[in-house]
Write a structure and sequence with these properties.
302 residues, alpha/beta, 6-stranded mixed sheet, 11 strands
Length: 302
């Protein structure tokens, strides 16, 4: 058996993550991907990008330091290859390219800014298809700080996919217009009207945390009824109580509410009663894409 190490750096609107995975190769068998380490740094780039139009100095410096630290961590872990992608916040920041160049000069890390379609394509390369039953329909939702990716699966294949500028950090800053919600409602209704029953598959830190808070076993889905009740409960608490009584991290205690709202809205418009939480996301897809396509991964997602 050969053990190789790959890494993914996901530069989101609410946090920056480094995922390192062991890839186990044995003969002609399918390789197995196992998590080796996950580091999450709460650098809220979206707070600047969506309200100021650029990343301010404070967050720029934190981002540069984070990338330097990630470079060292990848070296000591013995990472063979890595992929670094930036999403919504860096897409919209007027100085995004400038910051990426500085990071490359100071840390050696090359970052690629990907669009919503590329993000959805990378996510679709995860173990998601293995979890999908061919005779059922699913609405896959990946909630981010700046945008949310929606993908409809039928008969085990992607029917349609789209990214909407509805994210937790945008919602916190009241930067999502009613028209954008209406566009999302119309899109979901249009592409799920003939799919019943349909279930939701959710990914991202917020839905993972909600699943953990529910006390359900791994693989057991959340119900729409439970999520709605939990949303009302969280909304009734102050930010401080969510920190003290529920033990939520400061950068999770505020975004978890708009995240729940996105899932509930999608469930209502699609008619879904259950939300599956397989705990996979963009970082997992990045490593699989890098492993299978190497340096040509960018062409695969375009």
């Amino acid at each position: 058996m050969k053990v190789r190490k790959f890494a993914a750096i996901d530069i989101g609107s609410n946090a920056i993550r480094l995922l390192i995975q062991n890839v186990l190769e044995e003969g002609k068998q399918e390789p197995k991907f196992r998590k080796s380490a996950l580091i999450r740094i709460p650098v809220r780039l979206g707070e600047d990008a969506f309200t100021k139009g650029k990343i301010l100095d404070y967050h720029t410096e934190r981002m540069v330091k984070t990338m330097k630290a990630f470079k060292l961590l990848m070296e000591v872990h013995g990472v063979e290859k890595y992929m670094a992608c930036a999403t919504s916040a860096m897409r919209e920041a007027s100085n995004g390219s400038e910051i990426i160049e500085r990071i490359h000069q100071e840390s050696g890390i090359r970052i690629v800014i990907i669009d919503g379609k590329q993000e959805a394509t990378i996510i679709a390369s995860t173990d998601l298809k293995e979890l999908i039953e061919r005779d059922r329909a699913y609405l896959y939702i990946d909630v981010g700080g700046g945008s949310t990716e929606f993908t409809v699966f039928t008969r085990g294949k992607i029917r349609v996919s789209k990214s909407f500028k509805i994210g937790t950090v945008r919602l916190l800053n009241e930067m999502v217009a009613d028209a954008t919600w209406e566009q999302l409602e119309d899109w979901i209704a249009q592409h799920t009207v003939d799919l019943s029953p349909i279930s939701i598959i959710g990914s991202g830190g917020n839905i993972n945390k909600l699943h953990k808070m529910s006390g359900r076993k791994e693989g057991e889905p959340l119900s729409y009824i439970w999520l709605n009740a939990q949303y009302r409960f969280l909304e009734s608490m102050s930010y401080e109580d969510r920190l003290l009584e529920l033990g939520l991290n400061p950068d999770r205690a505020d975004v978890i509410i708009p995240a729940a709202r996105i899932y509930l809205s999608a469930a209502k418009w699609s008619g879904a009663k259950k939300i599956h939480v397989p705990k996979i996301g963009l970082s997992d897809g990045m490593i699989k894409t890098l492993y299978h396509f190497g340096d040509g991964w960018l062409n695969k997602t375009q």
